[in-house]
Amino acid sequence: MRHIIIGAGAAGIQAAKTIRALQPDAAIIMVSTDEHVHSRCMLHKYLSHERDEAALSFIPEDFFEDQNIYWMNNSTVTSIDTDERTLTLTDNFQLAYDKLLIATGANSFIPPVGQFREANNVFGLRHLCDAQNIRTLADKAQKILVVGSGLVGMDAAYAFLEQGKEVTVVEMADRILPLQLDETAGNAYREQFEAHGCTFLLGRKASETVINASGSIEAVILDDGTRIDCDLVVVAAGVRPAIECVQGSKIKAERFIEVDKYLMTSCNHVYAAGDVAGISGIWPNAMKQGETAAYNMCGIPMEYTDRYAMKNTMNFYGITTLSLGRGVAQEGDTVLVRHDSKSYQRAIIRDNKLDSILLQGPIDYSGVYQYVIKNQINLSQLTTDVFQLSFADFYGVDKRGQYMYP
Ligand SMILES: Cc1cc2nc3c(=O)[nH]c(=O)nc-3n(C[C@H](O)[C@H](O)[C@H](O)COP(=O)(O)OP(=O)(O)OC[C@H]3O[C@@H](n4cnc5c(N)ncnc54)[C@H](O)[C@@H]3O)c2cc1C
Questions:
Q1: Which residue minimizes the CA distance to atom 29 of ligand 1?
Q2: CA–CA dist 337, 321 (Å, integer)
Q3: Which of 30, 91, 282, 292 to mutate to test the pocket of ligand 1 (most atoms within 8 A of CB)?
Q4: In CATH, what class is 311-404?
Q5: What is the pLDDT of residue 308?
Q6: Comparing C-alpha atoms, which of 238, 226, 295, 234 is closest to residue 262?
Q7: Which among 90, 181, 232, 370 counts the fewest CB atoms within 10 Å?
Q8: Which pLDDT does position 406 carry in this prediction?
Q9: DSSP states of 11-60 as a string?
Q10: For the chain, how many helices (H) and strands (E)?
Q11: Closest CA to 294 of 4, 78, 70, 25
Q12: Homologous superfamily in CATH for domain 122-237
C-alpha cells in the first residue's frame, strides 16, 4: 500500500504519524511546498526574533527517518489524475498512489486594493517564507501598517510593537478581534495595545495606495480619505483554502475541497483534511482531521465528529483569553456575564446546553467547558453557577448526555 500526503502541516503530519502506527509496513510519501516543517501559530515569534526557523518546528529532528517516511520538501503538486491515481509535481515528476490525502492548508487572501497585489512590500502571513520576507523588510522599516485585526493581524502587530516599530492597525469592524471576541474582551486588549503605542483605525477600509518608482507602497488611503504613511504592509484579511492542485481534476472543490463524514472527497481513495477542507481553520481540528482521514485511508472507518468545535486561545500583555464555541447569541439564548477587575466571563446557553463560553483572565479549569460543549450536556438541573463548573458536577453522566447526581 502506498499512501501519499500532500502537505506537511498540522493535518499532514498527524495523518502520517497515524498511518505509520496503523500500517508499519506501508509506504508513505509526503510532498510539501514548505522547505521546513513549521507551526504557523508560532510565526509571530519568528517576526519578533524570539525564535529562529528551527525553533518553529513541531516535530523531532529525526521524524522522517524515524517514521520511515519519504519527504519531498520544496516540491509542489500541480495536478492530480484520479483515474490513473497519479499526481504531477512542478518539474513534471509523476507519483502513483493507492490512497491520497490532500492537506494543503490555505493561503493568505490579499484583496485587490490599489497595488496591494503588485507591490514588493505587501505580504500576507501564512508560511515561513512570508515571515522571512516580512522580517527582512521589518528590520529596516519604521512605520508598519497591519490590515485586519484578527488573531494573525494582532500577532503581527504585537511582534512589531515589541521591536519598537510604529504600528497602525486598520479594521473594517468597529472593534478588534471581531470574530474571536466580544467588545468587552476585545477592548481589554485594545487598551493594552494602545498603551504600547499601537494606533487603531476601526470601522475603516483601505481603498487606495500610493506606490513609488521602486514598487513599494509608501502610503495607504482609507475610505474616509485618511492617509497612512508606511514602509511595510502586512495584510491579515483572511485566507483561501489551497485548492489549486485539484483544479482540472474530478475532485469536487469550489471554495474548499468537499468531503463526506469520513473526510473522503468526491473521488474514491482521495481524502482531504485541515484548512483545505473548509470545516474549520484551527490547529487542533486540522490535527484531528488528519488523524481521522488516516484511519479511513487504512480501511478503519472513522467519522469526523468535531465539525462545529471552535476554540481560540490568546495571550497578549499577560491577558489570557479562551473562547470555546461560536460565541454568537441567537434569539431565545440565555447570555450570562460576569465581569470584575480580574476576569471577564460570558456564557451562551441554548436549549439548556452550553453553546459557547469566553473566559478572560484565569482559564485554569477550562477543560470542563470543552467537555460540556463537546458532549452537549443538558444543564437544566444544574445547581452550580455555570462559571464555577467542575467535573464533580457531572459525576455519572449517562449516554444521552443527561447527568445524574452523585
Ligand atoms: C500566523 C498564524 C497564526 C495562527 N495561530 C493559531 C492559533 O493560535 N491557534 C490555532 O488553533 N490556529 C492558529 N492558526 C491556524 C493554524 O495554523 C491552521 O489551522 C493549521 O496550520 C492548519 O493546518 P493544515 O495542515 O490544514 O495546513 P498548513 O499548516 O497550512 O499546511 C499546509 C501544507 O501544505 C503544503 N502545500 C500547500 N499546497 C501544496 C501543493 N500544491 N503541493 C505541495 N504542498 C503543498 C504547504 O507547504 C504546507 O506544508 C494560525 C495560522 C496563522 C497563519
A1: 9
A2: 15
A3: 282
A4: alpha beta
A5: 53
A6: 295
A7: 90
A8: 40
A9: HHHHHHHHHHHH-TTSEEEEE-S-SS---GGGHHHHHTTSS-SGGG--S-
A10: 8, 23
A11: 4
A12: FAD/NAD(P)-binding domain (3.50.50.60)
Inter-CA distances, 17 with 64, 89, 345, Å: 10, 23, 37
How far is residue 145's CA from residue 233's CA, in Å, rounded to a whole number?
5
User: For the chain, where do the domains classified as CATH 3.50.50.60 start and end?
Assistant: 2-107+240-297, 122-237
pLDDT value at residue 365: 78
Q: For residue 126, how far is its CA from the centre of ligand 1 (angstroms)? A: 7
Phi and psi angles of residue 128, each rounded to the nearest 5 degrees, phi first:
-55, -35
Low-confidence spans in the chain with pLDDT less than 50: 405-406
Residue tagged 447569541 (cell numbers): 329
pLDDT at residue number 49: 94
State the cell numbers at 360.
478572560
Question: How far does the centroid of ligand 1 lie from the alpha carbon of residue 242, in Å?
Answer: 10
Cell 495606495 found at? 209
